[in-house]
Amino acid sequence: MDAVVDARREASSAKLATATRPTREEAEAAVRTLLLWAGDDPNREGLVDTPKRVVRAFEELYRGYRENPSDVLDRVFEEVEGYGSIVLVRDITFHSHCEHHMVPFVGKAHIAYYPSAGVVGLSKLARLVDVYARRLQTQESLTAQIVNAIEDHLKPRGVALLIEAEHMCMSMRGVQKAGVSTITTEFTGVFRDDPAEQARFMMMVKGMR
């Protein structure tokens, strides 16, 4: 089900990007409208160039819409001298934006997998996190998308992912509780089927600091 939802999200994003993406001038005009709505004057000195800066920032913050996870995971190294044990990349920092309020959430991702046919370059896993994080997200969807991409492209014997993040929509607005962490996990293959493997993953993530 998660794979179906992800596919629909990808198709919807691609269709929107090609069919109705506003021009840069329209995007800058939208920022000016928001500045007026907030109660400020977009023509005053400190704000006159803000619409251009915001649009440039959006290009960077949401560049994941223009990146393809297939390109990140396209090269698999098969000559690993028969290595088949766990591969873990820990403390991958990321920042994303809540799709409900468009405010940041920041945290770390911890990814492990058991190779089958080969391994991927370690930096590729960090890049994969960024591809999906640099989009409007929920933490739950981000977790599922990363795991599904690894499953689809590497065909491992199992994947484990833990994401811990602080959501500014909870600390800056609403209940305004700073420092609260949200944790999501996803397990497939041997990690899903063997509780001892889940425990090993958690120990390696949390215990070996």
Give a brief description.
The protein is an alpha+beta fold and 209 residues long. It is built from nine helices and seven strands.
Characterise the protein shown here:
This protein is an alpha+beta fold and 209 residues long. The protein has two domains: 2-61, GTP cyclohydrolase I, N-terminal domain (GTP Cyclohydrolase I, Chain A, domain 1); 76-207, GTP cyclohydrolase I, C-terminal domain/NADPH-dependent 7-cyano-7-deazaguanine reductase, N-terminal domain (GTP Cyclohydrolase I, domain 2). It contains nine helices and seven strands. The strands form two sheets. It has a five-stranded mixed beta sheet with strand order 5-2-3-6-7, with helices on both faces. A two-stranded antiparallel ribbon has the order 1-4. Strand 2 and strand 3 (104-114) form a beta hairpin. The chain is elongated and about 65 Å long. The chain starts with a helix and ends with a helix. The mean pLDDT is 89.
Helices and strands in order:
Layout lengths: L1 H18 L4 H15 L11 H12 L7 H4 L3 E2 L9 E12 L5 E11 L4 E2 L1 H12 L2 E2 L1 H16 L3 E10 H4 L10 E6 L1 H5 L1 H13 L2
Parallel strand pairs: 2-5
Antiparallel strand pairs: 1-4, 2-3, 3-6, 6-7
